[in-house]
Specification:
mainly alpha
Length: about 160
């Protein structure tokens, strides 16, 4: 019975990982549309889903330990499983690995896009700041008011 629970856990992890990939693609799409509010909403969903995936993995490890205290991985339980259950678990683990690889690639793309947008925004802000910053460094006094500039009209004294 507990061996069937291992298979069910792997099914849940597969579904969650596929959903994670879909959410990562949606995040990339929203990054491209420059919608920061919707990106942060998707990001929160991604973080919650990852928390749930970790909880599933922890429960799977606990379940494996209950079935066989010596076993560390599902692969080590194959001899105890019926052939059909073992084959299903092999296929689920293979799909889980493939989906995780896709998620990793998509997460790297999202990170690259987010960093590029950050660099672009920072460059634009730096440019705007430099444009409004006074060119004359003595334009403002320490108090924040205009410094008294010497007037152009001066009285010349001395020999000619």
């Amino acid at each position: 019975m507990k061996l069937r629970l291992v298979e069910e856990n792997l099914v849940r992890q597969n579904k969650a990982t596929m959903l994670l990939f879909i959410l990562l693609e949606e995040e990339f799409s929203r990054l491209g549309q420059l919608k920061p509010q919707s990106v942060s909403q998707i990001e929160l969903s991604i973080q919650e889903l990852m928390r749930q995936i970790v909880a599933e993995r922890v429960s799977l490890r606990k379940l494996i330990g209950e079935i066989d205290p010596e076993a560390q991985k599902v692969v080590e339980l194959y001899p105890r499983m019926e052939e059909t259950v073992a084959e299903n678990c092999r296929e689920l683990i293979k799909r889980l690995d493939e989906t995780e690889q896709k998620c990793a690639v998509q997460a790297a793309k999202n990170n690259e896009m987010a960093m590029a947008l950050f660099d672009q925004s920072k460059g634009l802000l730096d440019f705007m700041h430099n444009q409004i910053k006074p060119k004359n460094t003595s334009a403002y006094a320490r108090s924040g008011r205009f410094a008294q500039a010497p007037s152009n009209a001066r009285l010349l004294s001395g020999r000619l």
